[in-house]
Amino acid sequence: MEIRFYNTLTNTAEIFQPVASDCVRMYSCGPTVYDFAHIGNFRSFLFADVIRRTLEFFGHKVHHVMNITDVGHMTDDASADGAGEDKMQAAARRVKEDKKSGRVPEGAVQNPDDPYQIAKFYTDAFLQDAQTLGVKVAFESDNILHATQHIDTMQEMIAQLIAKGHAYVGQDGVVYYSVESFPSYGRLSGNTLDRLLTGAGGRISDENQANKRHPADFMLWKADNSHIMKWDSPWGTGYPGWHIECSCMARKRLGRDVIDIHTGGEDLIFPHHECEIAQTCGATGEDTFARFWMHARFLMVEGEKMSKSKGNFWTVRDVLEGRATGTQVHPAVLRLELIKSHYRANMNFTKKGLLDSAGAVRRLTDFRAKLEAACGGKAEPVELTYPILQEFAEALADDLNIAGALGAILPWASSTPSDPAAALGALNRINDVLSIAPLGSTLSGAAQVSGELAAIEDLCRQLDDARRRKDFAAADGLRMEIQKQGYDVKTSPNGTIAEKRLA
Length: 503
Ligand code: AMP
Ligand code: ZN
Prior knowledge:
Elements: E1 4-7, E2 12-15, E3 24-28, H1 39-57, E4 62-68, E5 74-76, E6 83-86, H2 87-101, H3 115-132, E7 144-146, H4 151-163, E8 167-169, E9 175-177, E10 218-223, E11 238-240, H5 242-254, E12 259-265, H6 269-284, E13 290-296, E14 299-301, E15 304-305, H7 316-320, E16 327-328, H8 331-339, E17 347-348, H9 351-375, H10 387-397, H11 402-413, H12 420-434, E18 448-449, H13 451-468, H14 472-484, E19 487-492, E20 495-500
Parallel strand pairs: 3-4, 3-12, 4-7, 12-13, 14-17
Antiparallel strand pairs: 1-2, 5-6, 8-9, 9-10, 10-11, 14-15, 16-18, 19-20
The structure holds adenosine monophosphate (AMP) and zinc ion.
């Protein structure tokens, strides 16, 4: 079966074929570890996990690696010059506050002024959350690459770029990449040099222009003794630019100049991935870094991107423990919620969506229990020609159409197959990709209704009664009461729905 993935580089869904037949080599931009990753971040990490599992489902061997950005950087490191505040300084301040509020346990990060302790704490938290949600690469420590452990390789690549005329030391002593030395700059994002006017969208800062050959030239190394995390280098004691870490680590760990797939969230297309291409191709002389560039659109809250800087974010723990929606859910429920909408469409995080996912996970779990009971737990291996697997495979091969796949699987999960052992075999293969049908015994927390939620549901029922009685004054009072408790009130054909306001 042909697999088609949408490639940001060509803006088309292309047939996927690995560069080398032995293995698919895949790199995913991972988290910055100055804070907990939020569920928006996890939408992009789970998207990468589903790509990997899909390829494995189709019989490919996949070498998947992900980086951890634990180098200090600046709050403004997407800008060409690394302006802003030192992220570790900001993190130290936050950790001190979070220790008071209990978000960071008292025993953790004993010295918040030690950036390595901060990075380690949030790296561990990230890996724990990623494992909880079934992100496979998070279980493979060799494939989790820490930027701070690859500074030498970054310096080698920078030296190589200087030697090849792609980089230079600016008037201010900063090493810059010369975008004019790379004619295809802008190919991925459309931000070609003629379109990149100075200051456009805040992407190119004016201030530093005198020091650089072109305003879009971006930083590879900055000597800065005041920076909290710093390393010696031929260009002074300082720190690397953000983009260089991914170029270096992908090449080093995947062992190739041209890899198959590179993933990230849509905000990384420019400048991060555009700059990665310029660096890698500048160093290797190849005209391609990754054959497929794949990007997940944003997870939104009330129409806005969920982001750390806006403060409108929920962590995985917030959702699982019920702080986000008033309902505790099993990790499989959150996983399904974050993968079920097409990755190339924005998705809105709502309580209703989460409860729908809880219903689907419950249905799959019950189905598994039913099949296991019918066949004594002995699954039979099945090929892709097995009907439900064929439908599942076709949907996946169509640029990861998970919604389409679920449209086939969920009705099937309500049926009573005459061949339970084969059906269980099929369910297992489906679950190898989606990982949303846990064993029944581990699902006890799913869709548990917390005390608060039960009370809100009671108010909704009273509101429906008041409406039926046409007692509009009472209905208004109840509506206000529900709203006061932080819920939006909506009317549906099945009665009142209260949705926890998420921001
Ligand atoms: P960061 O830790 O900010 O570097 O982000 C890690 C990953 O999460 C990157 O691939 C981002 O593009 C992605 N990301 C950030 N915010 C969101 C969001 N709201 N929805 C989906 N992906 C996101
Ligand atoms: Zn990256």
